[in-house]
Amino acid sequence: MSELVKLFCQKCGRENYHTYKNKKQNPKNLELKKYCPFEGAKEA
């Protein structure tokens, strides 16, 4: 049972990416390091 989740930059708060998360295997919050084109750096 995967669910589509939105990934937001922690500094600027903009929605930059979408990904899928399996709620049964990973019930906690998802935190990934992705490139933020607005900040110009990798953020979690």
TrEMBL record:
<dbReference type="Pfam" id="PF00471">
    <property type="entry name" value="Ribosomal_L33"/>
</dbReference>
<dbReference type="GO" id="GO:1990904">
    <property type="term" value="C:ribonucleoprotein complex"/>
</dbReference>
<dbReference type="InterPro" id="IPR001705">
    <property type="entry name" value="Ribosomal_bL33"/>
</dbReference>
<dbReference type="InterPro" id="IPR011332">
    <property type="entry name" value="Ribosomal_zn-bd"/>
</dbReference>
<comment type="similarity">
    <text>Belongs to the bacterial ribosomal protein bL33 family.</text>
</comment>
<dbReference type="GO" id="GO:0005840">
    <property type="term" value="C:ribosome"/>
</dbReference>
<keyword id="KW-0689">Ribosomal protein</keyword>
<dbReference type="GO" id="GO:0006412">
    <property type="term" value="P:translation"/>
</dbReference>
<keyword id="KW-0687">Ribonucleoprotein</keyword>
<dbReference type="GO" id="GO:0005737">
    <property type="term" value="C:cytoplasm"/>
</dbReference>
<dbReference type="InterPro" id="IPR018264">
    <property type="entry name" value="Ribosomal_bL33_CS"/>
</dbReference>
<protein>
    <recommendedName>
        <fullName>Large ribosomal subunit protein bL33</fullName>
    </recommendedName>
</protein>
<dbReference type="InterPro" id="IPR038584">
    <property type="entry name" value="Ribosomal_bL33_sf"/>
</dbReference>
<dbReference type="GO" id="GO:0003735">
    <property type="term" value="F:structural constituent of ribosome"/>
</dbReference>
